[in-house]
């Protein structure tokens, strides 16, 4: 890329070295031109084509190449120089010494194909070896790249160099340290057995090529981050221990397991997977049943793309259809299921399991996921006291039992004074206003009983029944279990007709009567002498 002159040697032992001449040409066959010192001509035999040189001694010579206009040198041009010697007898050398060179002022190009700019890397998805290629926009020989150098540096968000790899380790620096790349050009690669990256750091990879003329390329670079911490995931719904519907699961995942990080790889929209195991046979849901999969079958969830990358909610909606999970578990009845998830970040760090392939049974931590019990069996609540059909003159409460294959959550009671056509609103004022006969509201007054260990009770003092005394008191009761299953609720017609839920027979009832009965003697009349019949008659 710089040529001040052309020089050589001569050997004229017999008559001695008198002078040397050179002829400089360029172009292709049929279109060759020769330099006269100020212009290019087509005739190589023209005396002007042979340029005199400066004799430097008995064996060497030199020709100065003009650096100012007119100059013979142009970028991306190949030149041929022929030299001949002249002895003191005037003889010219018969064989010319011929050299060819290219003048090159343009640097090569260099590209980096790996690692990627903005990439997330770890010991799973590694950032080395860095790879790339060189390019050349010129046509002349020997203008292509000869070497490539690579620098790997830890940088700040502002791009300030903090630590640079020097071939042995990362050390403090203020500018990149370029080291020779490996490979056969035009391709190149760079790695080192000594290079070791630090978690939660940003790194800059830079590559620069040099051609045979000594011209450098522009520096190409990428910036990426390094993260070796594993993410975590959790199952938030189903949230209870018992469920009666299983159409989806959801939760959260985060890539900041230990603490907030500056350069965590983050989570993508696909980086949480879920598997479901039935615990009575320890087989996994395979998309159709729980009968064959001894190892977990993982399904990709949908991870939200609209929230912070390090922490994301996820959801998996079970496919619908004839063999849907909901249908399969409904047919299986009450069973326990283990919902397990694992997350992996954009750098390939997994929550658990092997670096390559899906987690197996032995990889899943015991504390992972959530266990739920599917229960689609309705609970049953019954009234036991006061005894069905009995007459009572006082009460303290209404009592009963409730049973379920799972766990009863609560028991509710609707109480109706049949003779008055009113239902109890649940208040305890002892006034007629505690009873409602408004058709728009009277069917809604379900009161919650106190429930414990299969028994329930509702306080019902006599003072609450006094406004509707001398009446049959009908009682309907319903239970709800922790899976959300409700015992059947009586319809308005059932309540109007004082029937059990679904009709057909009388609802549970008892009679409340606290009025003292009266009796009167009518025969014989007062102050009358009894007749011979001897009858005593009266009313009650």
Structural commentary:
By secondary structure, the chain is mainly beta. About 5% of the residues lie in helices and about 40% in strands. The protein contains three helices and 42 strands. Strands 11, 13, 14, 15, 16, 18 and 19 form a seven-stranded mixed β-sheet that branches. The radius of gyration is 50 Å and the shape is rod-shaped. The termini are far apart. The model has no long low-confidence stretch (mean pLDDT about 95).
- Rounded to the nearest angstrom, the radius of gyration is 50 Å
Give the DSSP E fraction (strand runs of 2 or more residues): 35-45%
* Shape summary: rod-shaped
Q: State the distance separating the first and last CA atoms.
A: 136 Å
Q: Segments where pLDDT lies below 50 for 5+ residues?
A: none
Average pLDDT works out at 94
Number of strands: 42
* Structural class by secondary-structure content: mainly beta
Helix content: under 10%
Main β-sheet description: 7 strands, mixed
Please give the count of helices.
Answer: 3
Secondary structure: elements and pairs:
Layout lengths: L4 E5 L7 E10 L6 E3 L4 E2 L8 E3 L1 E2 L4 E5 L12 E11 L9 E7 L5 E6 L5 E2 L8 E6 L9 E11 L5 E5 L4 E3 L6 E2 L6 E4 L10 E11 L8 E7 L5 E6 L4 E2 L4 E7 L17 E7 L4 E2 L14 E2 L1 E2 L7 E7 L7 H8 L2 E9 L26 E5 L5 E6 L5 E2 L4 E7 L4 E10 L4 E3 L10 E2 L10 E2 L1 E3 L2 E5 L2 H4 L5 E11 L10 H5 L11 E5 L7 E4 L13 E3 L1
Parallel strand pairs: 11-19, 21-29, 31-40
Antiparallel strand pairs: 1-7, 2-3, 2-5, 2-8, 3-4, 6-7, 8-9, 10-12, 12-17, 13-14, 13-16, 13-18, 14-15, 18-19, 20-22, 22-27, 23-24, 23-25, 23-28, 26-27, 28-29, 30-32, 32-38, 33-34, 33-36, 33-39, 34-35, 37-38, 39-40, 41-42
